[in-house]
Specification:
Elements: E1 14-17, E2 20-23, H1 24-32, E3 37-46, E4 52-60, H2 68-76, E5 87-90, E6 116-117, H3 124-138, H4 156-170, H5 176-181, H6 185-192, E7 204-207, E8 215-218, H7 225-231, E9 237-240, H8 243-247, H9 255-269, E10 275-280, H10 282-296, E11 301-307, H11 312-317, H12 320-336, H13 340-355, H14 358-362, H15 366-378, E12 389-394, H16 404-408, E13 415-420
Length: 425
Amino acid sequence: SDGLIDYHGRIDSEEKIRGFRVAVEEIEAALGRRPEIAAAAVKAWPDASGNKALTAYIVVGEQGEPMVAELRRYLSETLPDYMVPSRFARIEGLPMTPTGKVDRKALPEPQDGVLRAMFTPPDGPAEERLAEIWKDILGAPAVGRDENFFDLGGHSLLVARLLRRVEFEYGRRLTMAAFFHGPTVEAMTRLLSAEVGDDLPVTVAIQPNGRRPPLLWLDASSTFRKLAHVIGLEQPFLGVPVEPVLERADTTTRLEDVARQMAQIVREAQPKGPYYLGGWCNMGVLAYEVAAQLVEGGDVVGLVVLLDAPNPVHYRRISRISRLSSAARYHWPRFWHEPASGKGRYLADRVRGLFETSDAKEVRGLEAGRAKLARMVWAYEPPVYSGDVALFQARQRLDVLDFRQGWAERVTGELVAHDIPGTHI
């Protein structure tokens, strides 16, 4: 309004991170506002998982080296999650072109010995032991005590592998829900030393910012971090762990029984409505039943989001041949494009499943809970629901698995359906 223009440079150096186009100059400008930083450059490199991740190169000013955790917190205040660099490295000076611009092509790889990684090292033997396990699971050269597991390339399957490894080496079983509350070496060490008990919050703040009523998502895994940030920083997105409830379920437990416990957890997380609930696949069916029970108990539900959630009544109407045909068309391309090692693992997992007893399957952690939920869903009869529902379905399966009609028969409120390009995953 005063006629002044701030010039930070050109926005012509884009990187693609997690499907987003990122102008690295925006990140460099944000870093440049820190008094401890004399200059900064950002470039994307493959991380431990093979995906591109941002590395920030820092030239430290006279005030000394900043802490990585503090830099991440600072950048998160103004930038979305996917624009916060995964790695920070100290460099004596930025390479320049003859015309005086930063030569990003000349920036060395983060593992280069010339660079000193800017992170807080593990504190004490307990954290050092755990950091070595993390390095092995993630394939990372080094892990700081306050670095986020998911920022280092971790995902839900690697979390399951990590928790099984910890159970084997420490003799203690940690839940995924507990891990998601503090996915750092420092937090996990405290969990293993029993300094953190069962008094954890009932939700995981996947994206806590914003003043709107929170979207309570039935699942607290890292799978939905990208979805949460695409929705935007004005919309809080809270994961509600379901695994602890599923672990206690047995063959007599019905979906309604699980939903009753989840409704109590939802009320504990948010004492008053309106409630906004959602879930993907079978978790979406569970969210529907939770919403129905909340409404029956006198609570207000603003919306239920069903993300490719099957309607079990409609599913049972589809012939077995059609279901098998759809499954074959879905799984065969995934199998065919796998490398030879992946094909072997894919076949081995399925052959092993034929010979496993039900008891053996129960110890497979995350998959065991999801298998229990699937059995409950296919035996479930969705009640009539008077609230509003948003249904998102993957177009790839709509020729056979289109559940719009099934949900329309049960929802007497407004049902809005969206067909989304892509697959169930």
